[in-house]
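Technical note accompanying the year-one report. For the benefit of new consortium partners, we illustrate the data format agreed upon in the data management plan: each record pairs a sequence with a structure-token string. No post-processing was applied to the example shown here.
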Amino acid sequence: MTIVERLVPDALWQAFQRVAPAAPARPQGGGRRRYGDREVLAAIVFAATSGCAWRQLPPVFGPSGPTAHRRFAEWSGSHVWDELRALLREAPGPRAELAWSRAAVDAVAARAAARQR
């Protein structure tokens, strides 16, 4: 089992595919191949659960930190996370019984201001 499959198991991947927007068309052709959504989702899950900065993502995921962050912003703007949470919340089984009132969705870290002497 790869790290991508461990961080994004098949059940989560299937649910994510139901709410993720289609990849934008590239009418001009050429350019780099767009990284797969599952690899990018795994990189986002890793960054969110480990607290690592986007630029410090290990290369094992494939996409770079800026690529993962860009896709995170794209999906956030499309309300993918809200839809995924609602979908998982409605799913039968133990996930449906989670206390979502105590779930953390996102965190922000900011550099502290330098101390003046």
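Partners are asked to follow this layout when depositing records. The helical segments are 3-7, 10-19, 37-50, 65-77, 80-90.
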